[in-house]
Amino acid sequence: MTVNTMRPPATRPRQHVRPVARRGMPRLKTVVVAAAAYVVALIFLFPYVVMLLTSLRAQDSLREVTFWPKEWVWSNLANFWSSGLAGNLWVTLKVAGGSTLLVLLVALPAAYYSARHHFRGRTAFLILVLVTQMFQPTAMLVGIYREFFQFGLVDSTWSLILVNAGFNLAFAVWILNAYFASIPRELEEAAFIDGNGRFGALFRITLPLAMPGVITALIFTFIAAWNEFVVALTLTTTPENQPLTVALNSFIGQYQVDWQNLFAGSVIATIPVIILFALIERKVVGGLTAGSIK
Protein backbone atom coordinates (compact mmCIF):
# COMPACT_ATOMS: atom_id res chain seq x y z
CA MET A 1 0.00 0.00 0.00
CA THR A 2 1.55 3.28 -1.14
CA VAL A 3 0.99 6.52 0.62
CA ASN A 4 0.88 9.71 -1.41
CA THR A 5 3.46 11.99 0.20
CA MET A 6 3.16 14.77 -2.33
CA ARG A 7 2.03 18.06 -0.85
CA PRO A 8 -0.59 20.18 -2.57
CA PRO A 9 0.84 23.19 -4.31
CA ALA A 10 0.94 26.29 -2.15
CA THR A 11 -1.68 28.78 -3.02
CA ARG A 12 -0.92 32.44 -2.99
CA PRO A 13 -3.10 34.57 -0.73
CA ARG A 14 -5.60 36.63 -2.58
CA GLN A 15 -4.60 40.21 -2.86
CA HIS A 16 -7.24 42.80 -2.14
CA VAL A 17 -7.61 44.92 -5.22
CA ARG A 18 -8.70 48.43 -4.40
CA PRO A 19 -11.30 49.76 -6.74
CA VAL A 20 -10.01 52.55 -8.86
CA ALA A 21 -11.96 55.72 -8.31
CA ARG A 22 -13.60 56.84 -11.46
CA ARG A 23 -12.89 60.35 -12.47
CA GLY A 24 -15.45 62.00 -14.59
CA MET A 25 -18.50 64.13 -14.50
CA PRO A 26 -20.38 64.23 -11.21
CA ARG A 27 -23.38 62.05 -10.88
CA LEU A 28 -26.74 63.31 -12.02
CA LYS A 29 -28.13 63.15 -8.49
CA THR A 30 -25.45 65.49 -7.17
CA VAL A 31 -26.08 67.98 -9.95
CA VAL A 32 -29.83 67.93 -9.36
CA VAL A 33 -29.47 68.40 -5.59
CA ALA A 34 -27.01 71.26 -6.06
CA ALA A 35 -29.24 72.96 -8.62
CA ALA A 36 -32.27 72.60 -6.35
CA ALA A 37 -30.29 74.08 -3.44
CA TYR A 38 -29.32 77.11 -5.52
CA VAL A 39 -32.92 77.60 -6.64
CA VAL A 40 -34.20 77.47 -3.06
CA ALA A 41 -31.49 79.90 -1.97
CA LEU A 42 -32.44 82.33 -4.72
CA ILE A 43 -36.10 82.12 -3.76
CA PHE A 44 -35.30 83.00 -0.16
CA LEU A 45 -32.86 85.76 -1.11
CA PHE A 46 -35.10 87.40 -3.71
CA PRO A 47 -37.29 89.36 -1.21
CA TYR A 48 -34.16 90.77 0.43
CA VAL A 49 -32.79 91.83 -2.94
CA VAL A 50 -36.06 93.60 -3.73
CA MET A 51 -35.96 95.26 -0.31
CA LEU A 52 -32.42 96.52 -0.91
CA LEU A 53 -33.22 97.82 -4.40
CA THR A 54 -36.38 99.55 -3.19
CA SER A 55 -34.45 101.25 -0.42
CA LEU A 56 -32.17 102.81 -3.06
CA ARG A 57 -34.94 104.18 -5.29
CA ALA A 58 -36.12 107.76 -5.46
CA GLN A 59 -39.56 108.73 -4.21
CA ASP A 60 -40.94 109.37 -7.71
CA SER A 61 -39.61 106.08 -9.12
CA LEU A 62 -41.26 103.64 -6.72
CA ARG A 63 -44.02 102.79 -9.19
CA GLU A 64 -41.63 101.98 -12.02
CA VAL A 65 -41.82 98.42 -13.33
CA THR A 66 -38.06 98.16 -13.89
CA PHE A 67 -36.19 95.78 -11.62
CA TRP A 68 -33.09 97.95 -11.28
CA PRO A 69 -33.48 101.55 -10.13
CA LYS A 70 -32.82 104.15 -12.80
CA GLU A 71 -31.36 106.43 -10.14
CA TRP A 72 -29.45 105.11 -7.14
CA VAL A 73 -30.29 107.21 -4.07
CA TRP A 74 -27.75 106.20 -1.44
CA SER A 75 -28.89 109.01 0.81
CA ASN A 76 -31.89 106.90 1.84
CA LEU A 77 -29.60 104.76 3.98
CA ALA A 78 -27.97 107.86 5.46
CA ASN A 79 -31.38 109.31 6.32
CA PHE A 80 -31.87 106.42 8.72
CA TRP A 81 -29.31 107.89 11.10
CA SER A 82 -30.48 111.46 10.71
CA SER A 83 -34.11 110.49 11.40
CA GLY A 84 -33.29 109.45 14.97
CA LEU A 85 -33.85 105.73 14.43
CA ALA A 86 -30.30 104.93 15.54
CA GLY A 87 -31.53 105.24 19.14
CA ASN A 88 -34.32 102.78 18.43
CA LEU A 89 -31.76 100.38 16.97
CA TRP A 90 -29.80 100.61 20.20
CA VAL A 91 -32.98 99.85 22.18
CA THR A 92 -33.55 96.76 20.04
CA LEU A 93 -29.99 95.59 20.66
CA LYS A 94 -30.43 96.01 24.41
CA VAL A 95 -33.75 94.16 24.43
CA ALA A 96 -32.53 91.26 22.27
CA GLY A 97 -29.18 90.98 24.05
CA GLY A 98 -30.67 91.26 27.53
CA SER A 99 -33.38 88.71 26.78
CA THR A 100 -30.85 86.25 25.38
CA LEU A 101 -28.53 86.64 28.38
CA LEU A 102 -31.39 86.21 30.86
CA VAL A 103 -32.69 83.12 29.06
CA LEU A 104 -29.27 81.45 29.08
CA LEU A 105 -28.69 82.26 32.76
CA VAL A 106 -31.98 80.58 33.72
CA ALA A 107 -32.21 77.81 31.11
CA LEU A 108 -28.69 76.38 31.50
CA PRO A 109 -28.96 75.30 35.18
CA ALA A 110 -32.60 74.22 34.77
CA ALA A 111 -31.83 72.08 31.72
CA TYR A 112 -28.66 70.62 33.23
CA TYR A 113 -30.33 69.63 36.49
CA SER A 114 -33.37 68.10 34.77
CA ALA A 115 -31.09 66.12 32.44
CA ARG A 116 -28.78 64.75 35.14
CA HIS A 117 -31.25 64.15 38.01
CA HIS A 118 -34.38 62.01 37.68
CA PHE A 119 -36.40 63.72 40.40
CA ARG A 120 -40.08 63.16 41.08
CA GLY A 121 -42.27 65.05 38.63
CA ARG A 122 -39.47 65.48 36.11
CA THR A 123 -41.60 64.36 33.15
CA ALA A 124 -44.49 66.59 34.22
CA PHE A 125 -42.07 69.51 34.55
CA LEU A 126 -40.73 69.04 31.02
CA ILE A 127 -44.24 68.67 29.60
CA LEU A 128 -45.32 71.84 31.40
CA VAL A 129 -42.33 73.66 29.95
CA LEU A 130 -43.31 72.51 26.48
CA VAL A 131 -46.96 73.49 26.98
CA THR A 132 -46.02 77.05 27.92
CA GLN A 133 -44.46 77.41 24.48
CA MET A 134 -47.93 77.11 22.96
CA PHE A 135 -49.18 80.37 24.48
CA GLN A 136 -48.94 83.42 22.25
CA PRO A 137 -48.07 86.86 23.66
CA THR A 138 -51.04 88.40 21.84
CA ALA A 139 -53.44 86.23 23.86
CA MET A 140 -52.12 87.67 27.13
CA LEU A 141 -51.52 91.30 26.19
CA VAL A 142 -54.10 92.66 28.62
CA GLY A 143 -52.74 90.67 31.53
CA ILE A 144 -49.15 91.53 30.66
CA TYR A 145 -49.93 95.23 30.45
CA ARG A 146 -51.81 95.27 33.76
CA GLU A 147 -49.02 93.38 35.52
CA PHE A 148 -46.27 95.71 34.34
CA PHE A 149 -48.48 98.72 35.04
CA GLN A 150 -48.80 97.63 38.68
CA PHE A 151 -45.00 97.39 38.97
CA GLY A 152 -44.42 100.69 37.15
CA LEU A 153 -42.50 99.04 34.28
CA VAL A 154 -44.67 100.28 31.40
CA ASP A 155 -42.67 102.12 28.73
CA SER A 156 -39.44 100.56 29.98
CA THR A 157 -36.75 98.47 28.35
CA TRP A 158 -36.79 96.08 31.30
CA SER A 159 -40.40 95.12 30.62
CA LEU A 160 -39.53 94.10 27.06
CA ILE A 161 -36.51 92.11 28.26
CA LEU A 162 -38.59 90.21 30.83
CA VAL A 163 -41.43 89.46 28.41
CA ASN A 164 -39.17 88.24 25.60
CA ALA A 165 -37.11 86.16 28.02
CA GLY A 166 -40.22 84.60 29.51
CA PHE A 167 -41.71 83.57 26.19
CA ASN A 168 -38.44 82.10 24.87
CA LEU A 169 -37.35 80.36 28.07
CA ALA A 170 -39.40 77.20 27.44
CA PHE A 171 -37.77 76.45 24.09
CA ALA A 172 -34.28 77.02 25.50
CA VAL A 173 -34.86 74.69 28.47
CA TRP A 174 -36.30 71.97 26.25
CA ILE A 175 -33.55 71.96 23.63
CA LEU A 176 -30.73 72.30 26.19
CA ASN A 177 -32.19 69.43 28.22
CA ALA A 178 -31.98 67.21 25.13
CA TYR A 179 -28.34 68.18 24.51
CA PHE A 180 -27.27 67.65 28.12
CA ALA A 181 -29.04 64.27 28.21
CA SER A 182 -27.16 63.13 25.08
CA ILE A 183 -23.76 63.73 26.72
CA PRO A 184 -22.50 60.58 28.53
CA ARG A 185 -22.08 60.80 32.28
CA GLU A 186 -18.77 58.94 31.99
CA LEU A 187 -17.11 62.09 30.63
CA GLU A 188 -17.99 64.01 33.77
CA GLU A 189 -16.95 61.08 35.98
CA ALA A 190 -13.57 61.03 34.23
CA ALA A 191 -13.26 64.75 34.95
CA PHE A 192 -14.01 64.07 38.63
CA ILE A 193 -11.17 61.53 38.73
CA ASP A 194 -8.83 64.14 37.24
CA GLY A 195 -9.58 66.44 40.15
CA ASN A 196 -12.34 68.61 38.71
CA GLY A 197 -15.39 69.48 40.73
CA ARG A 198 -18.97 69.69 39.54
CA PHE A 199 -18.53 73.17 38.11
CA GLY A 200 -15.15 72.31 36.60
CA ALA A 201 -16.61 69.33 34.76
CA LEU A 202 -19.58 71.40 33.67
CA PHE A 203 -17.56 74.27 32.19
CA ARG A 204 -14.69 72.18 30.79
CA ILE A 205 -16.50 69.13 29.46
CA THR A 206 -20.29 69.39 29.34
CA LEU A 207 -20.80 72.95 28.13
CA PRO A 208 -18.32 72.70 25.21
CA LEU A 209 -20.04 69.52 24.04
CA ALA A 210 -23.46 71.14 24.43
CA MET A 211 -22.38 74.26 22.56
CA PRO A 212 -24.53 73.51 19.46
CA GLY A 213 -27.61 73.48 21.70
CA VAL A 214 -26.52 76.63 23.51
CA ILE A 215 -25.99 78.44 20.22
CA THR A 216 -29.34 77.22 18.90
CA ALA A 217 -31.10 78.59 21.97
CA LEU A 218 -29.11 81.81 21.67
CA ILE A 219 -30.04 82.34 18.02
CA PHE A 220 -33.70 81.47 18.55
CA THR A 221 -34.05 83.85 21.52
CA PHE A 222 -32.14 86.69 19.88
CA ILE A 223 -34.09 86.54 16.62
CA ALA A 224 -37.44 86.22 18.40
CA ALA A 225 -36.70 89.22 20.62
CA TRP A 226 -35.30 91.19 17.68
CA ASN A 227 -38.44 90.70 15.57
CA GLU A 228 -41.02 91.08 18.34
CA PHE A 229 -43.61 93.76 17.56
CA VAL A 230 -46.98 93.36 19.28
CA VAL A 231 -45.84 93.41 22.92
CA ALA A 232 -43.39 96.24 22.24
CA LEU A 233 -46.15 98.26 20.58
CA THR A 234 -48.38 97.73 23.63
CA LEU A 235 -45.87 98.36 26.41
CA THR A 236 -43.95 101.31 24.95
CA THR A 237 -45.45 104.74 24.30
CA THR A 238 -42.45 107.06 24.10
CA PRO A 239 -40.79 107.03 20.66
CA GLU A 240 -37.32 107.01 22.23
CA ASN A 241 -38.09 103.82 24.18
CA GLN A 242 -39.55 101.90 21.27
CA PRO A 243 -37.54 99.17 19.51
CA LEU A 244 -36.80 99.44 15.83
CA THR A 245 -39.69 97.20 14.77
CA VAL A 246 -42.16 99.65 16.28
CA ALA A 247 -40.26 102.76 15.21
CA LEU A 248 -40.29 101.67 11.57
CA ASN A 249 -44.07 101.70 11.77
CA SER A 250 -43.88 105.50 11.82
CA PHE A 251 -43.11 105.47 8.08
CA ILE A 252 -46.56 104.00 7.44
CA GLY A 253 -49.07 106.84 7.41
CA GLN A 254 -52.80 106.88 6.97
CA TYR A 255 -52.72 107.93 3.33
CA GLN A 256 -49.11 107.43 2.29
CA VAL A 257 -46.24 105.02 2.98
CA ASP A 258 -42.64 106.17 2.87
CA TRP A 259 -41.45 103.00 1.17
CA GLN A 260 -37.84 103.89 0.45
CA ASN A 261 -37.11 104.92 4.04
CA LEU A 262 -39.09 101.99 5.39
CA PHE A 263 -37.06 99.53 3.35
CA ALA A 264 -33.83 101.38 4.14
CA GLY A 265 -34.51 100.93 7.84
CA SER A 266 -35.37 97.28 7.24
CA VAL A 267 -32.06 96.72 5.45
CA ILE A 268 -30.12 98.25 8.33
CA ALA A 269 -32.16 96.23 10.83
CA THR A 270 -31.06 92.96 9.19
CA ILE A 271 -27.33 93.77 9.35
CA PRO A 272 -26.82 92.86 13.08
CA VAL A 273 -28.57 89.54 12.54
CA ILE A 274 -26.34 88.74 9.56
CA ILE A 275 -23.25 89.63 11.61
CA LEU A 276 -24.46 87.38 14.44
CA PHE A 277 -24.84 84.41 12.12
CA ALA A 278 -21.46 85.07 10.52
CA LEU A 279 -19.74 85.06 13.92
CA ILE A 280 -21.55 82.03 15.34
CA GLU A 281 -21.42 79.75 12.29
CA ARG A 282 -17.82 78.70 12.99
CA LYS A 283 -18.52 78.04 16.65
CA VAL A 284 -21.39 75.70 15.76
CA VAL A 285 -18.98 73.36 13.95
CA GLY A 286 -16.26 73.78 16.58
CA GLY A 287 -18.65 73.05 19.42
CA LEU A 288 -19.47 69.60 18.04
CA THR A 289 -16.12 68.15 19.16
CA ALA A 290 -14.75 70.74 21.59
CA GLY A 291 -14.14 69.29 25.03
CA SER A 292 -14.41 65.65 23.94
CA ILE A 293 -10.67 65.08 24.32
CA LYS A 294 -8.33 66.28 27.02
Give me a quick take on this structure:
The chain has 294 residues and is mainly α.
Would you write up a description of this structure?
It is a single chain. This protein has 294 residues and is mainly α. 65% of the residues lie in helices and 0% in strands. The protein contains 12 helices and no strands. The protein has helices at residues 28-55, 75-82, 85-116, 122-132, 141-150, 157-182, 185-193, 198-209, 211-227, 230-235, 244-247, 259-286. Helix 2 packs across helix 12 and helix 3 packs parallel to helix 6 (157-182). Mean pLDDT is 79; it is low at 286-294.
Q: Which ranges are low-confidence, i.e. pLDDT below 50, for 5 or more consecutive residues?
A: 286-294
Largest sheet, strands/sense/barrel? none
Helix content: 55-70%
Q: Strand fraction band?
A: under 5%
Order of helices and strands: HHHHHHHHHHHH
Report the end-to-end length measured between terminal Cα atoms: 72 Å
Average per-residue pLDDT, rounded, comes to 79
Shape: globular
Q: Characteristics of this structure?
A:
single chain, 294 residues, mainly alpha, 12 helices, disordered C terminus
Q: What does the secondary structure layout of this molecule look like, with pairings?
A:
Layout: H1 28-55, H2 75-82, H3 85-116, H4 122-132, H5 141-150, H6 157-182, H7 185-193, H8 198-209, H9 211-227, H10 230-235, H11 244-247, H12 259-286
